[in-house]
Amino acid sequence: MRRAAQLLRTCHIRDAVAVIEYLVWLEKNIPTNTVSELSGAQYVDGLRAKQEHSKGPSFETISAGGLNAALAHYSATNDTNRQLTVNEMYLVDSGGQYLDGTTDITRTVHWGKPTAFEKETYTRVLMGNIELSRLVFPPQTSGRLVEAFAREALWKAGLNYGHGTGHGIGNFFAVHEWLTKKVISVQQYRIDQRNVLIN
């Protein structure tokens, strides 16, 4: 298990390099109004392809601006593709398949002045992720119980999101590892110390 965890860790470090390069590129290019949802997805996939041991995306990159960012598993097409602007939020949900691991990350950013509502919801989701990272629970705890901690800050404001908070992930495997695919959602799977989870 330690070897698998180390492989996954080094894979995520390389993958983070590609994601950081992408965010820097976006920061420079979004203000020029030259980046669309589709061109952004192609660019981040290309950055990952340059990383050592890369075998391609772990799933189709979700690159979504404005209202499209609120749609779970949105996939830009030629008909729905929109230009990314400094005036709205942008979400990228993407990952890489590497010989030593699989990644799946989501980042939500804004290059302009977010609205008060955008700031509040972003902050409340962040609070839930921080709560999850600090949570101590016994083995075999139900994902349903853990999910409640991730959503508490949103629930206090009468808000929610229509998607699971996280899932299991493997080493050069399916991005949604089968046994724990919905471990932090409404399913009844039990979390074990051998599970690798993302949220």
Primary descriptors:
2 domains; Creatine Amidinohydrolase; 3-stranded antiparallel β-sheet; alpha+beta; Creatinase/aminopeptidase-like
Describe the protein:
- This protein is α+β, with helices and mostly antiparallel strands.
- The chain has 2 domains: 1-112, Creatine Amidinohydrolase (Alpha-Beta Complex); 114-199, Alpha-Beta Complex (Creatine Amidinohydrolase), CATH 3.90.230.
- 37% of the residues lie in helices and 16% in strands.
- The protein has helices spanning 2-29, 37-49, 116-134, 143-156, and strands at residues 54-57, 62-65, 90-94, 96-98, 101-102, 105-109, 141-142, 167-168, 190-191, 197-198.
- It has a 3-stranded antiparallel sheet, with helices on one face.
- A hairpin with a 2-residue loop joins strand 4 and strand 5.
- Helix 1 packs across helix 2 and helix 3 (116-134) runs antiparallel to helix 4.
- The two termini are 20 Å apart.
- Residues 179-187 have low confidence and may be disordered.
